[in-house]
Fold each of these.
Amino acid sequence: MRKLAIVGVEKEIIELAQECGFKVAGIFDKNSNVRVFNLPVLGNDDSWERIHKEIQDLQVAIALDIPLLKEKLASQYGFENLATVISNSSYISPSATIQKGSLVQRGVKIMPDARIGRVCKLNVNATVHHDCVVGDFCTLAPGCMLLGAVIIEERVFIGAGAIILPKVKVGRDSIIGAGAVVVDDVPAGITVVGVPARPLVKEYVE
Ligand SMILES: CC(C)(COP(=O)(O)OP(=O)(O)OC[C@H]1O[C@@H](n2cnc3c(N)ncnc32)[C@H](O)[C@@H]1OP(=O)(O)O)[C@@H](O)C(=O)NCCC(=O)NCCS
């Protein structure tokens, strides 16, 4: 049985891994007192090298949502040690591709010729339609929907239930708010919210 450690406290990913036939050996978290499903805390991120020597063939799933953090941890834990975990109750088109370290939850649909990058997290019921490209380290929250030929660059977070219209391009490091309907291209590094989605501008009171 393949052995897996989960980085971060994420009950859904633990259950996903178990459903996919992994033996979950424990979790990595900075808080050694957390208890999830009676699994041991193996250590924090700095304990990885020691634990990796102790438990042979241990793989890792990075269960966190924040794209920048996922990128940092993927290189700390080593891309070669990352597991790709895909729910049996997702639909993945035979012509779609999913890169190493990505996690695909129940009810996700990935349609023909869609391409999913490394260390992406596709949460329950997210849908990626035909010819979409999703860059490395992206997070798709529950129920979001990318319509045909959408391009999502690296490290984008897409909130729950958001809809991205066909052929729209979302620039790297952007955030799409929950429930947004994105009708135009989104520049890199900004947050958009609403219907239709517009940049979120925060007013600061001195
Ligand atoms: C967009 C988002 C990232 C903004 O977070 P934030 O920077 O902390 O923003 P704030 O909560 O300070 O809200 C700022 C303003 O934007 C509004 N706003 C926040 N999120 C919004 C959204 N999704 N849609 C519309 N308006 C939103 C707030 O009402 C607030 O408006 P106000 O200034 O008129 O009071 C966040 O609200 C969001 O939608 N996150 C996605 C959550 C999600 O899907 N999680 C999935 C977990 S599995």
Amino acid sequence: MSFLNILNKYDNFDFEEYLRSVDDEMVLSSLEKKRLDDFDFLNLLSPKAKSHIEALAKKAHEITVANFGYTINLYLPIYISNYCSSDCLYCGFSKKNRIQRKKLSLNEIEIEAQEIAKSKIKHILLLTGESRAVTPLKYLCDAVKILKKYFSFVAIEVYPMSQEDYEVLFNSGVDGLTVYQESYDKKIYESVHISGEKSNYEYRLETPQRGAEAGFRNINIGTLFGLGHILKEAFFSGLHAAYLSDRYLGCEFGLSLPRINDAEGHFKPNHILDDVTFVQIMCAYRLFLPRVEINISTRESADFRDNLLGICATKFSAGSKTEVGGYTKAKTEPQFEISDTRKSDAVIQRIQNLGYEPVYKNWENI
Ligand code: SF4
């Protein structure tokens, strides 16, 4: 059974009516449970649960400390190409945008890696636009081998691939995969992914599973908040993470909560995720999925991220650049605007001041 079967079960489910029907008793009952079912999770996502946000945050914090301690995993992104063969309305790299295109040579990747490695962080996320032709498998494998000289953990966020191609990347040293579904609502998905490979909803939906089958030890998923109905998207993201966690016990899964930030093309989100609902969703994820990593990127502001740290976030990017060659040359447009522009040392210092231990390296393949 694929995750699509689970999504299909909710085809005729009236979310609006259910969410309206959730009362205090239902929220409190779900808050008390040790193991939540799908409807407990939905109760905690409901508008009614907002009046219990302090209790929700307290419980989310306790579960996080019990499972992760006072730690925060750190990583840095490296963009090595912004060529893309897809047209996605919200993304600066869309093929329709007239931006300067750049693909780093292997030598340039090495120089960029050396610059990034001056920070203490040993976890790197390699990103490209989604162009199979410009950044083929061989190029990605060569890039990974270079990064492996400087970093102990290499994850990728590139175009979705077959299990066989992921196995090749795994054997080249890739440890983790990030792939966001962006929207679990097929109609909305198709309305914002206009053309190119990314417009294939089902293929993308099954990508994390192919990655887990290929052997990656860490997989990060999520929805891009702003495209679809906020609570439904959060619900399906959580179900997707639960589905994967239940089937691939040797793999760690993570959830990100990216909100649309401005990018070339100036796409206006159809739905706005406000800060309080953001916290509510993050806490509901934690109660539903106690062991799942929760990743907060530099899309969010410094103050907001620092506050989330004390609740239930477990993973941060720090000192990120979203331009190709951003750490050394910064000649291209960013994929999206970042909000937390602090250097990695400043983020690390703040994490320590808040009583948390920054984790620079949590994996070494031997
Ligand atoms: S979201 Fe990905 S596939 Fe879509 S335009 Fe941006 S880089 Fe290309």
Amino acid sequence: MKIKRLGVMPSFCVLLAVFCLCGAYPCVAVPLSPDGEALIRWQAGATVTAEEVDAFGGLDACFASEPIPDVVWTRMQGKTYKDNPHIGRKDLRYIRALHWDYDGKTHLGEMVCNQQIAARLIYILRTLYEHRYPIQRMLLPDVYNADDETQMRANNSSCFCYRAVAGSAKLSKHARGLAVDINSLYNPYYKDRKDGTRYVQPSTGKPYCDRTKDFCYKITRNDLCVRLFIEQGFTWGGDWRTCKDYQHFEFKGL
Ligand SMILES: [Zn+2]
């Protein structure tokens, strides 16, 4: 997203600066503060206040999708994106979203997904935000060099990553931007092997395979997150029989 700044910025006081967001977003007045700057640059991970969100253009401006911006495309190269015959830049969208942490603060979030599910995903993330459903982190996996184990240990929530299903040559639904992982540390993947051992991903998520326990960021069968994804045409990995993937939602329609 290119930002054109109008005029000379006087100081960090009560003055408002007018910015014009090129493309789909209207001109808005934004408080000139460090956090306001984070919003304008959409510095994912930063926290913002309700007042700053309002000044930026409200929730409509904070839950939106756009073609992959140049700066994001550059970030993805050799990490979440690799040359391949299945999916290209035009098939993908960059999503901006807000999310609540357990600390009660609003964070800027980002995801890359298939353009065919962008509207559904924005609806889901916005509804979760409006109901204060806690999501700890929502950064592109590129921040973690697209290493799945590392981003899951960080409890990241994400969508697109061009990769195979762990332990197989089959392309993951994440490779087409059609699967979303939410709060991945506390909602791990596991499979019980024939020899009686259990494979868990991330490996630090072992304590959270026991779903009879209560803990933060736990996704449960009838919670808002599962209900919304199912309503929007996704299946939940928590319903799988031969293995469990509690963080995973994948779109059935494509
Ligand atoms: Zn997944």
